[in-house]
Write a structure and sequence with these properties.
This protein is an alpha+beta fold. The chain is built from ten helices and 14 strands. The protein folds into four domains: 158 residues, Endonuclease/exonuclease/phosphatase (Deoxyribonuclease I, Chain A), CATH 3.60.10.10; 113 residues, no CATH class; 58 residues; 49 residues, no CATH class.
């Protein structure tokens, strides 16, 4: 859960489990002042900093402290230990002593390579409570993961604690499907399904169940599974993966030779980073062009919003506690704090119930029908499938549209009677009626505790 600390340069979260409570505070400290450290120190003095339900209570302070000191910097950087620099570092040392914090990242491990001089220094650090120090399995930099255009080395810290992690189910990778074999399997499967018109609801349900199972079995047999990754990029290619692996190997070689600037590996690594960056820019541009070329009448407005809309961080969007206010008294008559309560309130807002009584007069005159109703034809189904976006789906967890596109010749003769039966039998399966609604902020609203602002 997040922890609020009064500083824009401090982010804090709390972890709880059988190990107790760990509060991780990520700090960016300015080179010229200690405002961030003062904000953290003020938080630690508050009673809430010592309140917790799971003991023991431990802290981890990490981030860019922008402070040089012989306790962690290499001795060769003694030119950085000026009186001014040491005076700025003293408040941090006082806090470490006051709260019994120990340095988890060993001394003399550099965390930054200056872009101008190439000198390695230690501005980032990791400190933890003394009772947590024995749980630190490893704390070290990983030069191979240094982001492009960044001068800081990532620090990877591993703690021996058990934290519940959400399970990610593998999903089919339809971009690697063997479509020829899948179409052949479906063609063989539909031979056992009757293609005559459906006359009863029971027959409808049996055919639909058989069709769903047959297609699911064919997908499972001819589509490889892939584990979802939080780092997945739509523009990523296998060529980039090869270049990244080669660049990471050179990164380690360059880091090991950091005390010898004459080593040719530094120039090799620099060229590899530049080539990798250029290839990423090319892949992004090509992906963007391909997406633009695939726009139609509907999605062209999505492109317009992307280009003309203001920049925002959608990943930080959170739904606050929602409130329903009486329009007359302006008093709060209902609150929704949990996810279930918020979801129910959004559902009621987006899909209001039908009015108890119709306001349309019983003898209201209607114009004559412009055309006579005709049931769905197989040709219409083919045309609709042909207009589908291949790598989209109607719901999360369902097969992508590319499955229908590639097996339509075999499956449409079975789908046709089912679709026509929805009109003939006045029957619509409950699973077909399920939808997923994305909840997003309406721009420019003054109060997002109102469900109508979403």
């Amino acid at each position: 859960m997040p922890i609020t600390i009064d500083s824009p340069d401090v982010t804090a979260v709390q972890l709880q489990g059988e190990f107790g409570t760990i509060r991780v505070i990520n700090i960016y400290n300015d080179c010229k002042n200690n405002n961030s450290l003062n904000a953290v120190n003020a938080y630690l003095r508050e009673p809430r900093a010592r309140e917790c339900t799971n003991l023991p209570l431990s802290f981890v302070w990490l981030g860019d402290f922008n402070r040089h000191h012989p306790l962690w910097d290499e001795e060769r950087n003694n030119h950085l230990f000026t009186n001014t620099a040491l005076a700025l570092t003293q408040p941090l040392l006082n806090m470490l002593a006051c709260y019994n914090m120990k340095m988890a990242l060993p001394k003399d491990i550099p965390t930054l390579k200056a872009s101008s001089t190439g000198n390695h220094t230690r501005v980032d650090n990791v400190f933890c409570s003394e009772n947590l120090l024995n749980s630190v399995i490893s704390c070290d930099t990983d030069p191979s993961r240094r982001p492009l255009k960044a001068d800081h080395y990532p620090i990877v810290t591993v703690l021996d604690v058990s934290v519940d992690v959400g399970a990610e189910e593998p999903r089919p990778n339809f971009r690697m499907t063997d479509w020829m074999k899948l179409a052949e399997a479906v063609a063989q499967g539909v031979e056992g399904i009757v293609t005559l018109e459906v006359t009863t609801i029971a027959e409808f349900n049996l055919r639909l169940e058989a069709l769903d199972k047959m297609v699911a079995d064919a997908i499972a047999e001819h589509t490889p599974m892939v584990k979802p990754s939080p780092f997945t990029k739509r523009w990523w290619t296998t060529d980039l993966a090869v270049m990244k692996k080669a660049m990471q190997k050179l990164a380690w070689k360059s880091y090991r030779a950091r005390h010898n600037e004459d080593e040719y590996v530094h120039e090799e690594y620099r060229k590899a980073r530049n080539d990798y960056l250029a290839q990423i820019c090319t892949a992004k541009l090509e992906h963007w062009i391909d997406w633009l070329e695939g726009l139609d009448e509907g999605s062209v407005w999505d492109a317009s919003h992307l280009v003309s809309g203001p920049a925002s961080d959608g990943g930080r969007m959170r739904v606050p506690t929602l409130q329903v206010v009486d329009p007359t008294t302006k008093r709060v008559i209902r609150e929704a704090a949990t996810n279930a309560e918020k979801g129910q309130l959004f559902f009621e807002t987006f899909f209001p119930p039908k009015p108890a009584a119709s306001t349309v007069p019983e003898d209201a005159p209607y114009p004559r029908p412009r055309w006579a109703f005709e049931n769905i034809t197989d040709e219409q189904i083919h045309r609709t499938i042909g207009r589908m976006k291949p790598y989209k789906a109607t719901q999360q967890g369902m097969a992508l549209n590319c499955v229908l596109i590639n097996i339509q010749e075999a499956i449409v003769p079975v789908l046709g009677p089912l679709f026509r039966a929805t009109n003939n039998l006045k029957h619509y399966p409950a699973d077909w009626a399920k939808t997923q609604t994305l909840v997003m902020k309406k721009p420019g609203k003054p109060n997002y505790t109102s469900p109508g602002a979403w």
